[in-house]
Amino acid sequence: MLHTKRLPSTLQSNPLEFLFNVLDDTEAGVVVIESTGHCVYMNSSARSLMQCGPEALPEWTHEHLEAMLEQVANTGQQVVERWAHSELVLRVRARPLDRAGALIALEITVAHAAGGRQIAELLSRSLRLNISDARLLTLLWRGMSNDEIAQNLSVRVGTVKSRLFRLYQKLGVKRRPAAVLRAAEVLT
Predict the structure, then answer these.
(1) Which of 76, 115, 108 is nearest to 90 (CA)?
(2) Is residue 40 part of a domain?
(3) Beta-ladder partners of 22
(4) What is the CATH number of the domain that holds 45?
(5) Is this model's pTM higher than 0.85 or not?
(6) Residues 29-43: pLDDT tens digits?
């Protein structure tokens, strides 16, 4: 039988505050907005990926956001789009948080990023990585899968997995999204 602890009374009285504290530690960008488009919450990962402050979404997102909000309102289902901005292509998933659709969550991750040698050199200098690890991180930044990385580097997928494991250790992260966010801290 599963035993759970009772939440402290401070968390029971303000569940949204509890939710936002949990979301602050997530590796993906998370934004909570009202159906009108007003930003209620944005974690640091989202601010880093979209290069904006905590108060509002940047201007370039408005045209994308309007269409997504309309689609979520009409279907009540999640909507996934790719938003291009400067050298980034972001994967944005919008889904309603409640039955009425008054609050909508946006989950933001890097789908693809342009770049190459200059990005690897910058990552190498900034994160104190050898150039081989910086190139591997660049391929992650560009949104490549393990199979695509293996093809690009002409190695086996198992080799990619073990190199990624060592890279994550060097970066002090546990998973791919956190490694990409470490790169985003340098590149954005």
Answers:
(1) 108
(2) yes
(3) none
(4) 3.30.450.20
(5) no
(6) 888 888 888 888 888
